[in-house]
Amino acid sequence: MQLRNDSQRFGIITIALHWLVAMTVVGMFALGLYMVDLTYYHDWYRSAPHLHRSVGILLFLVMGARLLWRLISPPPKALPTHQPWEKVSAHLTHWALYLLLFTAMISGYLITSADGSAIDVFNWFAVPSMTGDQKGLEDLAGDIHEIATWAIIILAGVHALAALKHHLLDRDDTLRRMLGKAPRDPDNLS
Hints:
- The chain has 190 residues and is mainly α.
- The protein contains five helices and two strands, in the order H-H-H-E-E-H-H.
- It has one domain (12-182): Fumarate Reductase Cytochrome B subunit (Up-down Bundle), CATH 1.20.950.
- 17% of the residues are buried.
């Protein structure tokens, strides 16, 4: 398998970044739901938010790399079997997911750093606050974070359903390309 995307296939780097981000986002969403109900004396009361913040900062770096990689190695062309509305929908969905992911990560950063605190990332390094102590910012950022994360999960669900529709109903190679599999029908990629 090639490293870079070409006009017909995704490369291994794009595939790896896609699935790394997808699994991380689902895990972060589940952890976020879990941590909001933790009580002060729960064993995970401090550990879960630390893990959530640390992974969030690393995810921000991975998403930056993903956007840079997208510029270096543009995605393949849509399959010829895709309808015009499907191409537009896919394009809008991908960019909406990018926008929502960065909104969630930036608002997550602001939740913690709004009081002037740095974010410690797995005790490896600290990301300083860029806002100083800003009253009310934490609550606003929290509301934005919650809305953005739910929107990500809903849109990612639609994205996954669309991939399954292409695979099971249309029987095209849309999903196979993101799984790194060879096309079923070479004529399907022309």
